[in-house]
Amino acid sequence: MSDITPDIVSFNDPETLNTDDAWVTVIRKMDEAYADLVRTQVEVEEKNTQLEQAQSFSNSIKDAMNDVLIACDQRGVIESTNRALERLTGLSEAALVGRPFSEFLGEPCIEKFQQLSATLAQEPVRDCEVELISPNGHMPLSINCSPRFDHRGRLLGMVLVGRPLGELQRAYKELNEAHAELKLAQERLVQSEKMASLGRLVAGVAHELNNPISFVYGNMHALERYTERLTTYFDAVNGGHSREELRQMREQMRLDKIIRDLGSLVDGTKEGADRVKEIVDDLRQFSSTQETEKAPFDLVHVVKSALHWIIKESKTDTQVLQTLPERQWVLGHAGQIHQVLVNLVDNAVDAMQNSTQPVLTVEMVVKDATVHLTLRDNGPGISDSSLPRLFEPFFTTKPVGKGTGLGLSISYGIVSQHGGELGLANHPQGGAVAHMTLPAVNEEGEHA
């Protein structure tokens, strides 16, 4: 038998109890460490998922962009790009990353890009035009470039966003074409409204022309008869008739009265022709396209012309009360202002068609180098719902087929182009009142 006697462990020994507590503590710590490790692993996996989602979101945005997106370092080496550049160059992102962006630029643009990189730290670059080498040749590209910094504010590189100029030029061309079509349509609308206003004057102008033309026509018939008698008398003189025969012939044909009437017939004929000329000149001035430069004209004459033509043509027996100076010069196109006044007078007359005693009051005064013209009717006035919309295009209170809805809108634009203002309101004592202002000038066109 061995002389060695084995140690007998007693659980009642204090040292043994301390060792067990230590192991329990170690195991507990290991459990806590494992739990922390599991939590950390879960958090890392969640962060990875979020990072993958963010990366996927970022990539989807880059790929969805039609514009070229390039991220470069400070030397201009491509670090990341999108599919727009891949489509233009015909290369994949893997083939593009790590290569200087200048490799894909035309020779004249390389130096421009280097200068761009040098100035980028001071300020962003906007709308810089470069030529990109593509499989289809050189393609003009408009790029915007912004600096890229780290969290400490140190410059890391640049971000370039570019768009092929072909698309921009096409968009600009379409925009210009649309603008030209809109301008042409506007000009046609203006001319259409002018012709519509001119149509309203045809009856009045025809009546106005008929008076002097009839006068001239009658005078010419009288002159024709007088000419026949005078020719007969002078033939008798040349035929050697006696003095007594000539005297009797002169009395029978009343040649002395004819000779006295000749002067008045000629003067009356000239006066009628002058009146026809004035009417034609006013009509031509109104119907012209007014492509000439602005010139001084007498606003009083234009007002009287518009009143005369509309009131003559109107079926309503309208009384016109005028307070106008002898002359008042303004600068602009007389025909265009005539169109405005015809429209205002015509609207006023239409508004009073149901009035028992229609009265149109017209006043003109000059204050602070500005001409103030007001036209007031005694009609029913303007409804509260219509008042704010009167100058809107195509808005009209007239029945269908009676108005284009463009008259006041175009009139407002014409007055504005002449440096004036046009307004419509209800008069406190009833009826509507139109108020137009224009800068006053002298006969030479100089501002007063």
TrEMBL record:
<dbReference type="InterPro" id="IPR005467">
    <property type="entry name" value="His_kinase_dom"/>
</dbReference>
<dbReference type="InterPro" id="IPR003661">
    <property type="entry name" value="HisK_dim/P_dom"/>
</dbReference>
<dbReference type="InterPro" id="IPR003594">
    <property type="entry name" value="HATPase_dom"/>
</dbReference>
<protein>
    <recommendedName>
        <fullName>histidine kinase</fullName>
        <ecNumber>2.7.13.3</ecNumber>
    </recommendedName>
</protein>
<dbReference type="Pfam" id="PF02518">
    <property type="entry name" value="HATPase_c"/>
</dbReference>
<dbReference type="Pfam" id="PF00512">
    <property type="entry name" value="HisKA"/>
</dbReference>
<keyword id="KW-0175">Coiled coil</keyword>
<dbReference type="InterPro" id="IPR013656">
    <property type="entry name" value="PAS_4"/>
</dbReference>
<feature type="domain" description="Histidine kinase">
    <location>
        <begin position="204"/>
        <end position="442"/>
    </location>
</feature>
<dbReference type="InterPro" id="IPR035965">
    <property type="entry name" value="PAS-like_dom_sf"/>
</dbReference>
<feature type="domain" description="PAS">
    <location>
        <begin position="53"/>
        <end position="99"/>
    </location>
</feature>
<dbReference type="InterPro" id="IPR036890">
    <property type="entry name" value="HATPase_C_sf"/>
</dbReference>
<dbReference type="InterPro" id="IPR000014">
    <property type="entry name" value="PAS"/>
</dbReference>
<dbReference type="InterPro" id="IPR004358">
    <property type="entry name" value="Sig_transdc_His_kin-like_C"/>
</dbReference>
<feature type="coiled-coil region">
    <location>
        <begin position="165"/>
        <end position="195"/>
    </location>
</feature>
<dbReference type="GO" id="GO:0000155">
    <property type="term" value="F:phosphorelay sensor kinase activity"/>
</dbReference>
<keyword id="KW-0597">Phosphoprotein</keyword>
<dbReference type="InterPro" id="IPR036097">
    <property type="entry name" value="HisK_dim/P_sf"/>
</dbReference>
<dbReference type="Pfam" id="PF08448">
    <property type="entry name" value="PAS_4"/>
</dbReference>
